[in-house]
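pls ignore typos typing on phone
6-O-phosphono-alpha-D-glucopyranose + seq
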Amino acid sequence: MCGIVGAIAQRDVVAHLIDGLKRLEYRGYDSSGIAVLNDGIHRVRRVGRVAEMEAAAAEEGAHGHVGIGHTRWATHGGVTEPNAHPHVSGDVVVVHNGIIENHESQRQRLRDLGYTFESQTDTEVIAHLVHHYLQTEGELLAAVQRAVRELDGAYAIGVVSTRQPDLLVGARMGCPLLVGLGEGENFIASDVSAVLAATRRVMFLEEGDVVALRLDGVQVFDRDGAAIERAVRLSDVSLASLELGPYNHFMQKEIHEQPKALADTIEQVLEQGFSPALFGDESGEVLRQVEGVQILACGTSFYAGSVAKYWIERIAKLPCTVEIASEYRYREAVANPKYLIVTISQSGETLDTMEALKYAQSLGHDLSLSICNVRESAIPRASRLVFYTRAGAEIGVASTKAFTTQLVALFTLAATLAKLGGKLSADEEHAHLDALRQLPGSVQHALNLEPQIKPWADRFAPKHHALYLGRGVHYPIAMEGALKIKEITYIHAEAYAAGELKHGPLALVDEEMPVVVIAPNDSLLEKVKSNMQEVRARGGELFVFADLDSHFGESDGVHVIRTPRHVGVLSPVVHAIPVQLLSYHTALARGTDVDKPRNLAKSVTVE
Ligand code: G6P
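k done
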């Protein structure tokens, strides 16, 4: 959600700013803008895609050696050009991610000082506040340092002023911001993808940091205003991983990258076995104390956690609860400090998950583990242990390869806890490692089902509703399937544990209701078959994802696609693939925007 870029260079920075914003598009946005300094402030803003703003900037001949840019996902104030960033106050220009909670009181105070407001955004408060302090401090860096001390809430900002056109200032609290270090040029951005075209050398800012960027260097100040050094790292994200290559959509690319993403994630497990070392330095000490697991996550990550509950209880024999982070954080939870708090987040910056972790910590939970796909992001940094999935950059809003690699991480956690607790025999460990070794191949087999799934998508495309059914460890896969189809096709879909069918949803079933069933040959298959009969008897059309051992055939109104073999305990990972493909091809058939579904954001940094 929302993205920031900024640059100071000897060259014209407009192309860099726009390229950076395009790379941040995946985070979700509805308007965009840039401002560059030349003799004055040249600002270009547009509602809609960055490409429209780019065309306007070209037409107007925008150019400058220092500038900032922004993609906005509306929170305070509608999707309008006056609400789009950057916001200007006199000679000061600001872009901002996050939410300023005390904006009302600041707005009143600034009005009393004579400022007028042109937008409904909380960000304009920051622009005026910096402008106000620029008059008293006489210097942009000091003005920003004064201004941010008065902001409550979360922010990452970029600020420039024609008063000091040789300076770009950034600051962060609660929202990500990093610095890209070039040769005689420097950059800020919300995430590394937006600086990689210029440099791989990056510096992650800490909470409360303010940074001053000039052509020849960068100075960082901590929240107390003291000069401080922050580590410089070489990013391991490759530019190629951010490109589409031969694919039409990032979601398509990411679905097909899963065998590799899984193999990369599994590699570290196969090298070390189910060893605590996989989760970080302190993990032996932390994991040995664990008497139960509390998983907190949002969206697809929550469904990964929901699968893990079955594994942790079955394999590690530890109680496990899974909760939506936004619910947990406002619940009066009873803490058991011997429970491991596991947060799952692709981005590592989902606000509700971060706040749920902080809330758990405030309740006395000291044992925490983050499963995350983005290095150095906020949630792993706030956790004692971390397991980084190696899915590579995930750009499509609808999560795919992040989900399946999260499942591998969680399976590994279950087996590791089991081993530490003396619940895993050598034979079982060997079998689980072998299952992991086979997994990328099994996922490739599932991908090979694509030609069979396409005709199903054509039948799905005209539908308005769908039901997804599963049982046991495959019930969360039904939930993830329903979420995927909602997200990118806008078909209303609901998932049910198949045993619940007759307690309500069966009333919805008629010839118009496609019912997708996840039905591999596990211990609940016979139960699922009975549930399918209940659907068929009411005229519902069944679309069944099974495996070779499921032993039932096609018949009138019952369509079956089988994965080539049953893969045992890791079967949920394999069965995630066909539901992803069904959603993708249905979206193509309906002509929706696969990678940027309406109203959604990849990275949800607000409540
Ligand atoms: C958004 C994304 C989902 C994602 C969820 C949680 O809603 O669109 O794809 O599952 O956030 O994100 P996280 O980065 O914490 O896994």
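The pocket of 6-O-phosphono-alpha-D-glucopyranose is lined by residues 298-301, 345-347, 350, 353, 397-399, 600, 602, 604 (CB under 6 Å). Residues 111 and 214 are 33 Å apart (CA to CA). more later
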